Amino acid sequence: MHVTQLNLVPAPEDVAPADLLDRWPSLPDIAEAAAGAGVRVSVIQAAARDARVERHGIAYRFLPLRGDEGSRRLAAEVAGLGADVVHVHGLDHARQAHALSARLPWLPILLQDHANRPPRWWRRMRWRRWFGAASAVTFTSMEQARPFTEARLFAPATRLFAIPESTCRFTPGALAAARAQTGLHGHPCVVWVGHLDANKDPLTVLDGVALAARRLPGLRLWCAYGHAPLLDEVRARIAADPVLASRVHLLGPVPHGQVQSLLRAADLFVSGSRSESCGYAALEAMACGVPPVLTDIPAFRALTAGGGVGRLWQPGDAAQLAEALVAMATHGPSRERVRAHFDAELSFGALGRRWADAYGALLPARRSVA
Q1: 162 forms bridges with which residues in the sheet?
Q2: pLDDT digit string (tens) for 288-299?
Q3: Is the pLDDT of residue 89 over 60?
Q4: For 189-218, how does the pLDDT look when each residue is reduced to its tens digit (9 = 90+)?
Q5: Preceding omega of 105 cis (within 30 degrees of 0)
Q6: Residues 6 or more apart from 242 whose CB is under 8 A from it?
Q7: Per-residue pLDDT tens digits for 125-170
Q8: Which residue, among 135, 138, 74, 131, has the nearest Cα to 98 in the 3D structure?
Q9: Residue 123 DSSP one-character state
Q10: What is the DSSP string of 240-279?
Q11: Is residue 305's pLDDT more than 60?
Q12: Residue 63 to residue 70: CA distance in whole angstroms
């Protein structure tokens, strides 16, 4: 079985093709997960210039794909590869998928959600037509499909699959060594990795930490972040509370290569997200074996088997977060159990099997119209 994966978000012109695979890790990770399950995978990446890269047995084709000529070129490239299934990254590229289907009507197309939202109601007629080209659509959680199905955006015959958006290469490491390397400490040592914005809701997390510290006097929170529109509010909240001022450490932007060390040093990982398509930082924490304390949203329910590994709390509820932190600090799952869950459900091998099954389910669709 040969699957061609399409990423139609144009590559930055100043990034070399080989470097892009490191800059956008989910692009090779999803391809390699499927390839690891025995699927032959090729990737077409929208770009300003032609290029070819091969890595770990996967051929990456970089192509200019703008306008009608780009649509014709894409169809010709896919047809030339002889793919059995096309996997399109992003539901927002349904229009391009529809155009491809018009040129290659025998070819099953799978669309993968990447934090996409249903179109506004006045645009839905055209989007229903575009989504009609998809034989299947995947989401991290089937709950995330509900806004689309309730709006009747997918055809009745469209298959829906629950497959985590991506996976992670991080691994567990020695706690003591990681703490010596990073300087992190605490009992518990809690790590946050994420933007300081309204969706990540750091202010509620700070309120929850302040409450939990009454019963966990050794608690320390270490925050790595990038985009930070709420940084001034976060600093003001910390400065106004002596409990937080002595326990919260703002690390600022941290290179991705150092995040693994931070997570290896952690006793707990915390997130306040109000919505996520998957939650890459949570995936990374679980890959390191760190018990997660996450908001009770569809993506995190999917990652944790409904809270079976970790603890879930209602977004915006600082008191629930405090209870979750105390519970996890006193009798949470072991690091070995968290990593075992990651291996079974979220690893390259686990995702590869899910992708292979989804692709295989679409092959009869190809044979019936070929």
Answers
A1: 139
A2: 999 999 999 999
A3: yes
A4: 999 999 999 999 999 999 999 999 999 999
A5: no
A6: none
A7: 999 999 999 999 999 999 999 999 999 999 999 999 999 999 999 9
A8: 131
A9: G
A10: T-HHHHTTEEEEE---HHHHHHHHHT-SEEE---S--SS-
A11: yes
A12: 8
CA distances from 324 to 66, 90, 216, 244, 249 (A): 49, 34, 12, 18, 21
Domains within the chain, CATH numbers bracketed? 2-167+348-369 (3.40.50.2000), 175-345 (3.40.50.2000)
Q: Specify the amino acid at residue 337.
A: R
With beta carbons less than 8 A apart as the criterion, state whether 112 and 6 touch.
no
Tell the residue number behind the tokens 């509010």, with chain if given. Answer: 233
Structure tokens belonging to residue 210 = 């302040």
3-state secondary structure of 43: strand
Give the pLDDT confidence score for residue 368 in this predicted structure. Answer: 53
Instruction: Give the other-Cβ count within 10 Å of 57's Cβ.
Output: 11
Q: Write down the residue that tokens 């659509």 correspond to.
A: 137
Distance CA 279, CA 315 (A): 15
Whether 370 shows a pLDDT value over 70: the answer reads no
The token pair that represents 355 in the structure block:
């992708």
Arithmetic mean of pLDDT, 102-109: 96
Tell me, yes or no, if the pTM score tops 0.85: yes
Could you tell me which residues come within 8 angstroms of residue 203 by beta carbon, excluding any fewer than 6 positions away? 230, 233, 234, 237
Average pLDDT, the chain: 95
The answer to whether 35 touches 119, Cβ cutoff 8 Å, is no
Return the pLDDT at 366: 59
In the chain, which residue ranges form alpha helices assigned H by DSSP? 17-23, 26-36, 67-81, 94-103, 124-131, 146-150, 175-182, 202-212, 231-239, 242-245, 256-264, 280-287, 298-303, 318-331, 335-345, 348-369
